[in-house]
Amino acid sequence: MSSGAKPHGARDEAAAATAVRQMFDSIAPRYDLLNHLLSANIDRLWWRRAARTLRPVLANPDASILDICCGTGDMTLALLKHRPAGAHPILAVDFTRAMLIRASQKFAARKHGLPTAVAIEADALHLPIPPASLDLVVSAFGFRNLANYQAGLREFHRVLKPGGQLAILDFSEPGGLIGKAYAVYFRHVLPAIGRLIVGQAGPYSYLPASVGNFPPPPAMLALMLSSGYERCAWQPYTFGIAGLYTARRLAVA
């Protein structure tokens, strides 16, 4: 099983993290356009579905919530729709400044009085957050890009309160005929469209490679269990093209 993201040419975890940051900085101006185009807007449905699953925590105005690897903030916005008036702001964290700037603009555009979010530039593996202080940690299509998956799970475990919830929405590789058809699109058509719009081949060739490198659901669930989580589960979305991992930090006995 892979230990973390492996961008082309990266020889160690530090180089992998640098390559990922530079790659997302380079595509930030057209990131949202490409995401919606290449997924036929299904990505919006995935964010909303994940947010609905998390409503019991989101509905608590005092809950402390982190959206890690928040990108341009679309998952954060989906979560905010379920936050009540006067709720604590959601912490929206990413280490790619160009992406975070766009997230900040979306948060600032929300109407006065609506629940909002605070954008913070930080590394997911070294969060500037006190231990055992969060009720919910969410990551949408960002966890897969961490240089070390187990280190990420342990860092999230550190900042979660005992009994706090973890939710990771990310891609997977479906099986059967649908999986074969999707693989053709994902490995050949998607990189070609991305290259045409962005003007470079790397980022949208990295995407299918990163999904292939990511642990399949049984291995990911085992990794979560070994990192101190309980009630680990995976809910497939759209024939298993994506899915939501959920778990809780072990409560103190």
Structure description:
- By secondary structure, the chain is of the alpha/beta class.
- It has a single domain (13-173, 215-249), classed as Vaccinia Virus protein VP39 (Rossmann fold, 3-Layer(aba) Sandwich), CATH 3.40.50.
- The protein contains 10 helices and 7 strands.
- A 7-stranded mixed sheet has the order 3-2-1-4-5-7-6, with helices on both faces.
- A hairpin with a 4-residue loop joins strand 6 and strand 7.
- The longest helix has 23 residues, at 176-198.
Brief summary of the model shown:
The chain is α/β, with parallel strands linked by helices and 253 residues long. Helix content is 45%, strand content 20%.
Tell me the span between the first and last alpha carbons: 31 Å
* Portion in strands: 15-25%
Number of strands: 7
CATH fold naming: Rossmann fold
Residue runs with pLDDT of under 50 for 5 or more positions: none
Specify the structural class. Answer: alpha/beta
Q: What would CATH call the class?
A: Alpha Beta
Number of helices: 10
Shape: globular
The radius of gyration computed from the alpha-carbon positions, rounded to a whole number of angstroms, is 17 Å
Helix/strand order: HHHHEHEHEEHEHHHEE
Q: Order of strands side by side in the largest beta sheet?
A: 3-2-1-4-5-7-6
CATH architecture: 3-Layer(aba) Sandwich
Kindly state the percentage of residues in helix. Answer: 40-55%
Average pLDDT, rounded to a whole number, is 90
- The CATH superfamily title: Vaccinia Virus protein VP39
Instruction: Tell me the number of structural domains.
Output: 1
Largest sheet: 7 strands, mixed
